[in-house]
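SEQUENCE AND FOLD
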Amino acid sequence: MIRLILLGAPGAGKGTQAERVADTYSIPHISTGDIMRKAVADQSKLGAQVKEYLDAGQLVPDELVINLIRERLSSDDCAEGFLLDGFPRTVAQAEALDRTLSELNAPLTHVLELDVPEQMLIERLVKRGEESGRSDDTEEVIRERLAVYNEQTAPVSDFYSKSSRLVKIDGTGSIDQIEQAIKEKLN
């Protein structure tokens, strides 16, 4: 059973590796963005609340995000494990997640962080922007996103490190090399 959080800065390769790990271990790849979009599309009670914030251009509050995560992790397909990608984003969310998982009697088995030097992150994201035409992958925007990540999300690594749950993975190799390093930590 694998209950995993995959951490890493924008451009570290979380999305790519999350898909591979979820496929290999037959566990759901859970992204908060996907959960929110589905809740809104399903017109659930929580989805209606999320829609109000999104329509107003506001961040969805932690309490609502945690409720969405709790609901998703309570689903039958998560009984044998899950991979959380893009959550938690703050220490408050990490603390709330620990409480939620304790209530569900489903503690995390792994917290992995893809570790990539900032200059390499910038180069990867600029290249992605050039190849995909993504307007948010300019160096100026990337530097701002990394600053926000370092301020708000990087402390989540420290939170898990203090409880000896964090394992860093060298995220500078090829996609296959990084996948192999992750598998070694999970097995």
